[in-house]
Amino acid sequence: MRYLALDVGDRRIGLAVGDDAFGLVRPLHTLVRRNLAADLAALGAVARAEEVSTLVIGLPLTLRGEVGPQAERVRRFADAARRLELPVELYDERHTTSEAKLRGAADVDAGAATVLLEDFLAQRAR
């Protein structure tokens, strides 16, 4: 199965793609957000081009594991993303941005999506 991971922020959405057959994940790029309709259209185009079957959207829980204002915004975005007619999985994305920075990712948002999807696939493999 192929996955498209999204690190959703207020201004940008980092993207990465991977599959569970080989456990390989690669960063794609970062979308600059415009409005919901344009964001979903761009994501739909990427999902089709990459032939993904599921969206994995990072849920930015607080350090205590609670749902804060940013996580609520991401949940609303995830609900809207269901219009793409792909399954949507929310996955805890705490520390993905800091991990991407530690790895020296040129595109930190896409790097965070990469870390997110690597963690997601590793968790599924257990």
Question: What are the main properties of this structure?
Answer:
42% helix; 5-stranded mixed β-sheet; Nucleotidyltransferase, domain 5; 4 helices; 126 residues; 27% strand; alpha/beta; single chain
Summarize the structure.
The protein has 126 residues and is of the alpha/beta class. It contains four helices and five strands. A hairpin with a 3-residue loop joins strand 1 (2-8) and strand 2 (12-19).
| CATH level-1 class | Alpha Beta
Name the CATH architecture: 2-Layer Sandwich
Q: Looking across the biggest beta sheet, what order are the strands in?
A: 3-2-1-4-5
Helical content class: 40-55%
Write down the Rg.
13 Å
Based on CA inertia axes, which overall geometry fits? globular
Q: Overview of this structure, please?
A:
The protein has a five-stranded mixed beta sheet with strand order 3-2-1-4-5, with helices on both faces. Helices cover 42% and strands 27% of the residues. The chain has one domain: 2-Layer Sandwich (Nucleotidyltransferase, domain 5), CATH 3.30.420. The protein is built from four helices and five strands. With 126 residues, it is α/β, with parallel strands linked by helices. The longest helix has 18 residues.
